[in-house]
Amino acid sequence: MTLHDLAARAMRALDPEDAHGLTIRALEAGLGPRAGGDDPILATRVGGLDLPNCVGLAPGFDKNAQVFGPMLRAGFGFVECGTVTPLPQAGNSRPRLFRLTEDRAVINRMGFNNQGLELFAARLARRGPGVVGANIGANKDASDRIGDYVTALTRLWGLASYVTINISSPNTPGLRALQTKAALEELLGRLAAARDSLPAEGRVPMFLKVAPDLDDGEVEAIVETVAANGLAGVIVSNTTITRPALASRHAGEAGGLSGAPLTDLSTQMLARFAQAAQGRLALIGAGGIGSGAQAYARIRAGAEAVQLYSAMVFEGPGLVIRIKRDLAARLRADGFTSVAQAVGAG
């Protein structure tokens, strides 16, 4: 365990949101870990993006695009910032972030708290090398939520390596309704029209982030709508509103559940998307990934890359190095020479 991992363990004595804020300030001050070079077997290409390794940082950690550089240096192959909304908003009242230590899980009801699109865009405009994505959402009180997504896409054009459309957070009332067929067709249709009207040199891949709580038939409808509008792929999945058996005293808190209890549900949902997509879309696996074995299982289920966040709350920032080392060993043990060869092998 590294000194950074020990520091992360010590900060678990603090309120979760205070600990996160302190972590961001430490990273801004240059106190983050620095990883060495990546094993070539982990390099891959996802939706037109060339990644030095297939393990990414999920959104929620770097909401305001403040520390994507330090997190790339910590060993992530790509970093997704956000969720950002056009206007700054405070989010829901505190407490709104809970560690479920016994369950290796987190519940959050943050409510898209962020500093707004202008600061976010200004920081991305100064970024250096590395793949940095932008996760976009709608303001809680927006009269035209789809218009908020169009505004964010237009403002970030040419600044991010890719854009993720987040319609799957459970903490903005009514947001998940955008996953229904008619609403999704309107959303992606308007975004595709906006994309096609913008300068071609700024064009980047677009992904849709979905919930793990979809009903029968919704997966197939989402795949067809995403493909019809020319998006690169789908990120599976966001947090869940379901509650498996949990031991923590915080189990009854409202919000989205992430971490270890989400592993099986998210993997099963990913496999459903892989079956429906039949190779037409790039898939990124997220939710409940905390080990090399779990990352490998997601790849074998159809993911071309993976993202994690919650597991670092309990394992520290050194987790990404351990996952990459174990994942490379598992690929070689099964006779693969690249991540791409293992995609869907399970």
- DSSP strand (E) fraction? 15-25%
Q: Specify the CATH homologous superfamily.
A: Aldolase class I
The CA-CA distance between the termini, in Å, is 32 Å
Helices and strands, in N-to-C order?
HHEEEHEEEHEHEHEHEEHEHEHHH
What is the oligomeric state here?
single chain
Total beta strands: 13
- Low-pLDDT ranges: none
> Any idea of the CATH topology?
TIM Barrel
Instruction: Return the CATH architecture.
Output: Alpha-Beta Barrel
Structural class: alpha/beta
C-alpha Rg (nearest Å): 18 Å
Largest sheet: 8 strands, parallel, barrel
Share of residues in helices: 25-40%
Write the layout of secondary structure elements.
Blueprint: H1 3-10, H2 16-28, E1 44-46, E2 49-51, E3 55-57, H3 68-73, E4 78-84, E5 97-100, E6 105-108, H4 117-124, E7 131-136, H5 145-155, E8 162-166, H6 181-197, E9 206-210, H7 218-228, E10 233-236, E11 256-259, H8 263-277, E12 282-286, H9 292-300, E13 305-308, H10 310-315, H11 319-333, H12 339-342
Parallel strand pairs: 3-4, 3-13, 4-7, 7-8, 8-9, 9-10, 10-12, 12-13
Antiparallel strand pairs: 1-2, 5-6, 6-11
Describe the structure.
The protein is an alpha/beta fold. Helix content is 36%, strand content 16%. It contains twelve helices and 13 strands. It has helices at 3-10, 16-28, 68-73, 117-124, 145-155, 181-197, 218-228, 263-277, 292-300, 310-315, 319-333, 339-342, and strands at 44-46, 49-51, 55-57, 78-84, 97-100, 105-108, 131-136, 162-166, 206-210, 233-236, 256-259, 282-286, 305-308. The strands form three sheets. An eight-stranded parallel barrel has the order 3-4-7-8-9-10-12-13, surrounded by six helices. The protein has a three-stranded antiparallel beta sheet with strand order 5-6-11. The chain has a two-stranded antiparallel ribbon with strand order 1-2. Strand 12, helix 9 (292-300) and strand 13 (305-308) form a beta-alpha-beta unit. The longest helix has 17 residues, at 181-197. The protein is globular.
